[in-house]
Amino acid sequence: MCGIAGLHLRSDVLRPRLGALTAGMLRQLADRGTDSAGVAVYGDPRYAAPPGGSTVGVLATPEQLAELNAVAELVPAGPTTVLRSALGYQDLLGALHDAQPDATVTSWGCDSVVLKGAGHPAALLDSFGLDAATGWQAVGHTRMATESAVTAAGSHPFSAGADICLVHNGSFSNHATIRRELQADGVQFDSENDSEVGARFIAHELAAGADLDKALRSLCERFDGFYTLLVATQDSFAVVRDAIACKPAIVAETTEWVAMASEYRALTGLPGIENALIFEPEPEEVYTWKR
């Protein structure tokens, strides 16, 4: 079933409340997915890279990553540890691979981090310290596993490019075929989750020169199945649904923010919701908001 929640701020006044507002949305959706949960946060100074540097999320403990203390600040956040470094992300990822070659990377870039893990959303959100997060955008997910194992690596969001993440409610029926095609192009995977295939596909399209709108349209053309997707980048927030739009999605928009959730109840705690423009996204129409 799964639950999706995302918040894109247009007003800097709300930046101190980003985490609390997002956590409130995800707690409303905890019963849609009790297996695991995760969130991508954009712009939180606790995690964002120092000037000229990078930030990397890793499913490992600070103790397991201790030898990286020489090149990065290690910030614990529940099952995820965040590495903040003056190194560029390629050098930081290289150092991580040398130290822990089997560690699962949750995200990399300079402005965002993906925190995720297996377990009940309520406990995970507390372990992430999400209520205290600040920033300008967040994307979250509560998972009810249907086609792959309940693991931290298989939880959402999935990040497959710098400051890019995806959350998904639904299932892709032809993900194995597209996975093989991407693997033939050298793309590597961290899980058997079908949603990761969608994330890797979008990142592959972006790397080839497509913008986010075109990448999501290409996904609609290539992927079969049922899906509602919320995708975030360093400057964008985008929603798309499959051709028959069978998975729920609600968008609310004001002059101060844009929010998307699987159910309206997740939006009710947002400031000014009573004056928001509220609508259901149309099938296979890509909705994109820019920073």
Describe how the helices and strands are arranged.
Elements: E1 3-9, H1 18-28, E2 36-42, E3 54-59, E4 73-77, E5 80-85, H2 89-99, E6 104-109, E7 112-118, H3 121-128, E8 137-143, E9 158-161, E10 164-172, H4 175-184, H5 194-207, H6 212-222, E11 225-232, E12 236-241, E13 250-253, E14 257-261, E15 277-279, E16 287-290
Walkthrough of the structure:
- The chain is of the alpha+beta class and 291 residues long.
- The two termini are 30 Å apart.
- It has six helices and 16 strands.
- It has helices at residues 18-28, 89-99, 121-128, 175-184, 194-207, 212-222, and strands at 3-9, 36-42, 54-59, 73-77, 80-85, 104-109, 112-118, 137-143, 158-161, 164-172, 225-232, 236-241, 250-253, 257-261, 277-279, 287-290.
- Helix 4 packs across helix 5 (194-207).
Summarize this entry quickly:
With 291 residues, this protein is α+β, with helices and mostly antiparallel strands.
Question: Which structural traits does this protein have?
Answer:
291 residues, 7-stranded antiparallel β-sheet, alpha+beta, globular, 5-stranded antiparallel β-sheet
